[in-house]
Amino acid sequence: MPGPLDLVASRAYPMLPGALYPALLPLPLPLLFAHGYGPIPAIGSVSDQVGAWGTVGQTRTIHLRGGGSMRELLLEVTAPVDENGAGHFGYALTDLTGPLAALAAGVDGSWTVEPLGTGARVTWRWSIAPRTPLASAAMPLLGLMWRGYARKALDELERLLFPSS
After folding, report:
1. Among 20, 23, 33, 35, fewest CB within 10 Å belongs to which?
2. Which residue from 111, 75, 69, 113 is spatially nearest to 92, judged by alpha carbons?
C-alpha cells in the first residue's frame, strides 16, 4: 500500500512567535475549525479533555459537526524559549469515525510557529495514513480538500488573533 499523504499549509502573521504560540496551543478547536471544507467537517465540540490543552500525553475526543469523531493524543510540546524563539506541538488522531474514517486510518499532525521577519510563520502539517489501498487512490482529492480546510483554519486563526482587523 502507498505511504501516507503529507500535507503542509503556512501563513505569516504580524505577531512574534513568543506571543502567538501560547495563544495557538490552547485555542478551542470549535473556534479554530468553525468551517468545514468538502468532506472535512467543522469541529462541533471537544470532550474528555482535562485542563488546558498543552501537556504531553493529554487526550481528548473531537466531535465533528454532522457526525463523526476522533481521538487526539498530544505527543510533543516545545514552547518558544523567548519572544523570537520557535515553538512546536505534535499530535496523533486515531479512532476516526464518520466521513474521514472510510479514507484515513489515522493522522499525525503538528503546528510550528517560527520567527519570520518582525512576525511569525505558522505551519500546520498533516500526514494521513490511508485506510486501504482503494482509499490511497482518493488521497490526492482529500489533499485538495484539506488545503481548502487549512486555508479556512488559518484565516480563522487570523481573525481570532486580531479581532479588530
Report:
1. 23
2. 75
- Separation between Cα atoms, residue 97 and residue 112, nearest integer Å: 27
Q: What is the pTM of this model?
A: 0.94
Query: Residues near 141 by Cβ (< 8 Å), separated by ≥ 6?
Result: none
Residue in 79, 31, 37, 36 with CA at minimum distance from that of residue 55: 79
Q: What are phi and psi of 64, to 5 degrees?
A: -90, 145
Closest CA to 39 of 64, 12, 21, 18: 64
Q: Using one digit for the tens of pLDDT, what is the confidence trace for 69-100?
A: 999 999 999 999 999 999 999 999 999 998 88
